[in-house]
Specification:
4-stranded antiparallel beta sheet; 6-stranded mixed beta sheet
Amino acid sequence: QVQFVESGGGLVQSGGSLRLSCVASGFTFSNYRMNWVRQAPGKGLEWVSLIMSGGGSGGGSTYYADSVKGRFTISRDNAKSTLYLQMNDLKPEDTAVYYCTEGSWNGGLPRGQGTQVTVSS
C-alpha cells in the first residue's frame, strides 16, 4: 500500500534552516506530482508546495504558497522515491507538522505521520 515516511523536522531558532525528507513507497513515485502540506497548532491543513512529475530524475515545475515563496525549495529524487523540502529563513509561523502527499491534493488527510517543525522566536 501507499506509505510515506517524513523526517528531518526539529526545533530551530527564527532565521534557521531545516531540510525535510519524505520517502515514498507502494506506487510509482516518478509518475506523480508531489506536495508538501502542513498543519499548524489549532489550525487546518495548509498546502505549502508542489513539484510536478516529469522533467527527468529531478522532477518538473515547482509551485509555492505565497507565505513560503523565496524561502522554501521543493525537490525530488525519483531514483530514491524521495521528496525534499529545504526550508530557509524559518519563522515562528512556520511551526507545524509537515506532511507529503501524492497527486492533486484536495484537502484530504495525509497518509504519513508527518514531521514536527518548531521555530522559536
